[in-house]
Amino acid sequence: MPEGSPAVRTQETKHRPLHSDVGTGEDREREPGIGSLIASALWMWGRSSPRHMAFFAGIAWRMWHARRRRVQSERRLGGPVPSVVAISPTMRCNYNCRGCYSHGRDSDNELSTAELDALFSEAEELGVNSMVVTGGEPLVRSDLLELMARHRRLLFVPITNGSLVTPEVAERIARIGNVLLLVSIEGFPEDTDARRGPGAHKAALRALGHLRQAGACYGFAATNTAANTGHLGTDAFVDEMIGLGCSVGFFTEYVPCDEHPNDDWMLDQRAREAFRRRVLELRRHKPIVLVQFPHDEYGKDNRCSAAGQASLHINSQGDVEPCPFAPISCENVRWGGLASAFRSPFMRAIRENPALLRRDRFACALFEHRADLGELAVRLRTHVDEREHERGRGRGREREQEREGEGKGKSKRDRTIERERAGRTAAATS
Fold it and tell me: Measured between alpha carbons, how far is 209 from 244 in angstroms, rounded to an integer?
């Protein structure tokens, strides 16, 4: 196995990724990064059968090669190339979940199949290793599965409500070989149905059953709020997810960035700390990898890794955003592709301001400082507009000089050529 690829040591139900700081006791206080946690999830799932192990080995090999390409791209571009790109290929959805950030965002003018195809190809060449596919409901796009199958150098992590996961879709996902599907669920039936609508919990469980029957690699995704955190952290819920075959679970703390934010869902600091302790305890004793946002992203330094450092977000219209919770943009991939997005002056300005990357009240620093981000974007857009205006004035002066030359019978270029010819003739005759 290549250097830097993931592996784990299993002792009873404990798991430890190679080259990470996950362990027991004091060692565990250093906590792993998200990449190590996902590697552990793939490894645990891969150990269950030879076919699964082949899937894991393929992903590990591709990620190792992606890292090498990423290093080369960073040298060429003169800045960071994120290992993860989150993309919302659509904002359309067949649900109307409370607290979803996609509410109120434009759903027209989506990136076409050809544009997504080109974007994924460029991501592969630049060394991006993973695409988190969110939305909206990703599976409402009929082209998505084919696109994921076409770009096998990327690990795709779609987040779905599960309602469109049929046995046929599950089997296709299992065959593709580079998809880790996350099914959204909010705890027990009353939790999921209260947020997502009647029947949503049964639909999520049905999707998990189809994925298990197909032998796919999958897990769950939950938004923890003040209303459901007490349920998400129970042995009963986590054991149910393990029993349904989940190899990984993602907990994301609620960010009130939707059209109708619910302040009652926000966790206070005491609840945050209690849930964090519970997640770490579950990691020690449960055969499932649990990832918690924002804690596993921000780490001990309380620093966001988005805005192009380790990740960024591309919305359904191609706008390049620092993260899904901060829909502010100065660039669009339709103008210059991913390479241009990674060189974004807006993203660089965010990364160079540490205060914008630290959170206090909210689970997302960029959402917390959204007013500052908006002002920064306005300043940068104004600077670009002024620069383009000056370039336009310069081009206008050149065109005016051309017209003056034409009025005299010869253009500026013609007169220059004539002078050069006269000089060569004089030199030849001297």
Answer: 7
End-to-end Cα, the chain, rounded Å = 73
Inter-residue contact 137 to 200 (CB < 8 Å): no
Q: CB-based burial of residue 284 (10 Å sphere; 0-12 exposed, 13-18 middle, 19+ buried)?
A: middle
Residue entry with tokens 């829909």: 327
The span from the CA of 170 to the CA of 156, in Å, is 14
354 falls in which pLDDT band (50, 70, 90)? very high
What tokens appear for 162 in the block?
Answer: 């599960």
Give the list of residues 6+ apart from residue 231 with CB closer than 8 angstroms, or none: 187, 188, 191, 237
In this predicted structure, the answer to whether residue 310 has a pLDDT above a threshold of 80 is yes
- DSSP labels, 31-89: ---HHHHHHHHHHHHHTT-HHHHHHHHHHHHHHHHHHHHHHHHHHHHTS---SEEEE-S
How many angstroms from the chain centroid is the CA of residue 244?
A: 26
Q: 46-72: per-residue pLDDT in tens? A: 777 777 777 778 888 888 999 999 999
Residue 296 sits at the vertex; the CA angle it makes with 326 and 138, to the nearest 5 degrees, is: 50
Q: How far apart are CA 49 and CA 428, in angstroms?
A: 83
Any bridge partners for residue 359, and if so which?
A: none
d(CA 61, CA 93): 34
- CB within 8 A of 292, min separation 6: which ones? 250, 251, 253, 275, 276, 279
Residues 357, 341: Cα–Cα separation, whole Å: 19
14-17/8-11 β-pairing: antiparallel
Long-range interactions of 271-278: CB distance < 8 A, separation 24+? 271/226, 271/229, 275/224, 275/229, 275/232, 275/233, 275/251, 278/233
- Quote the pLDDT of residue 33: 62
Per-residue pLDDT of 185-243, as tens digits, reads: 999 999 999 999 999 999 999 999 999 999 999 999 999 999 999 999 999 999 999 99
Q: Is 179 helix (H, G, I), strand (E, B) or coil?
A: strand
Query: Which of the pair, 429 or 271, is modelled with greater confidence?
Result: 271
Over residues 18-35, mean pLDDT: 43
Least confident segment among 95-104, 121-130, 346-355, 417-426 = 417-426
